[in-house]
Records
---
Amino acid sequence: MPDEIALELKNIRHAFGDTVAVDNFNIDVRPGEVVCLLGPSGCGKTTALRVAAGLENLQQGTVKVGGNVVADSSTNVPPERREIGLVFQDYALFPHLTVLQNVEFGLENMTAGERNIRAVTVLDQVGMKWAVSRYPHTLSGGQQQRVALARALAPQPPVILFDEPFSGLDARLRDQIRDETLHILKDSGTAGLLVTHDAEEAMFMADRIGIMREGHLEQVGKPEELYFKPSSAFVAEFFGEVNRLSGNVEAGVVNTPLGAFAAGDLEEGRKAEILIRPELLRLNGDVDAPGLCGRVITSRMLGRTSLIHLCLCEEVGIEVHLHSRMPGRYLPQEDQEIHIDLDPNQAFVFPLDSKS
Ligand code: ATP
């Protein structure tokens, strides 16, 4: 494959009337790589995918598949000729065709026998070989989604686009089908571009995540980069709640009720906000230890972790409400005083007047 990029979107801009849905949008997906577009409702994720697929006519920019231009100012290859598989939320199977016929539908340049073998092979891969002669309406949502995946995989496209493919499934089935989908993509070496608004899903599926905001990509990187080194409060908050504090930069630090945080390259006098993930607030019963002291408001078991609501003890003089997340079962009593450990170097510091 030329230059080893399965799908490339370059300088894409797309508007619906006055609404600019996607602007200055650039992303590439390599063979075997899964990239997720993650962002809130209306930020342009689906539009970016539809432009890539050719379901929206390109207005500006370039789309390449396997190094070949499929859309630019002078080219517009129709969707069915782009060598892109599509798996969308509503499965979009043909109701009047059997499962086998649905999967055979997109297979060209093959004899009837070859089509049959290929369709049965991919249906077997997704665990749906048993349903070859069933009609879509006789299958559950999860089963239909597997057939939709088989249909997308059957022509062996270099790229498959997924638009919220698991959101119609209940939690357990969703976990199972996204796990299977990930393994199938990795085994087949197919590139995947997947749209979701679910950060956990993106972290589960993606080699890289692009966080979208108001039509543009705010940050692109490996899940751990985005989680541990977010470029903005918007990105940080997308991966779970944060404790927020604020203060002014003085002598290179931001002083807060939780202590001083290095201000990095923020200039003196600048108002800054500090974001601290709940798991960074480590609690223990040693209240005489030097450091921060909190009082438990309430605590809740959430499964793998416990969430403890805290305020800082009165000496600080400011009402500060914090959330700490501790592994396993950790349920201190209400009103109990508790010691808080925090590594200030792991907190995020951003200018407060930036758009966050
Ligand atoms: P969601 O997560 O809710 O599906 P999204 O991030 O996929 O949202 P898009 O569906 O791409 O967002 O929409 C981006 C913007 O473009 C929104 O403001 C939306 O209202 C607008 N938009 C999308 N499709 C159309 C259309 N066909 N006509 C007019 N405006 C549209």
Note: Residues 16, 19, 21, 39, 41-47, 197 surround adenosine-5'-triphosphate (CB under 6 Å).
---
Amino acid sequence: MLTASRRWRRDGKSIGLVPTMGALHAGHLSLVERARLENELVVVSVFVNPIQFGPNEDLERYPRDWNHDFKMLEAAEVDAVYRPSVMAMYPPEASTRVRVGGLTDTLEGAARPGHFEGVATVVTKLFAAVEPDRAYFGQKDAQQAAVVNRLSRDLDLGVEIRVVPTVREPDGLALSSRNVYLSAEERHAALAISAALREAAGAYASGERDQARLRARLAARLALEPLVKPEYAELVDPATFRKPGTLAVIAAKVGKTRLIDNHDLEKPFPG
Ligand code: AMP
């Protein structure tokens, strides 16, 4: 990988990087397509990053299917795949972590201590290995994209961060590698998350601006599904991830599966 991207860089070719944890789906592919439009070469990394999982999270059971991923990447005609081992990324003597301040205090940062430090560290390493011009992240993980954007600017990494819209199932559920954990009943209940975002966007479009009432709408829709246990359902500023704002953000457990989704109420909800 190092050799390939150094050679490409020497040849003056632009490189777009799509970082993933594998278990690829159409959401990942939309990042690849966008990268393809804007770069001569597209690199996808596939690495289940252990340091961004908390001790009680799903690192062990996180879906891994290299045969499936390889076929998707081959069909998408990506130019290279970077798939390092955990030992190569984190040899026992490694002791450096990258921490982004401010943005990481709320929401996912508060709910998952250490998560964004794991993300910032791995992204810094991926950028160092691949030396991309641009890197592509999904709006589904909006706070992550903002953290990485801050990281690239603060450390002068010189990588342009591009955020790509969330790809959804026809019924509204945001695609996620974790959706495979859901039973049929949970899959149905999980629709409450996108439905809550859609309803809040509808209310906002009809002129509702009261933060408490918009938040109550999110909560009321989620409460219709007993299988859905919200961790947060808030309205935050899309730049700072602090209240108040127009970005509706939800994290909820559906059975044992933790799902997140978001939508900026200033935009119509798709579909
Ligand atoms: P992951 O493999 O889940 O870590 O995701 C890798 C990248 O794909 C991240 O930038 C995610 O935000 C993005 N992504 C995941 N799901 C979607 C989706 N449904 N639509 C668009 N991007 C997504």
Note: The chain has two domains: 2-164, 177-264.
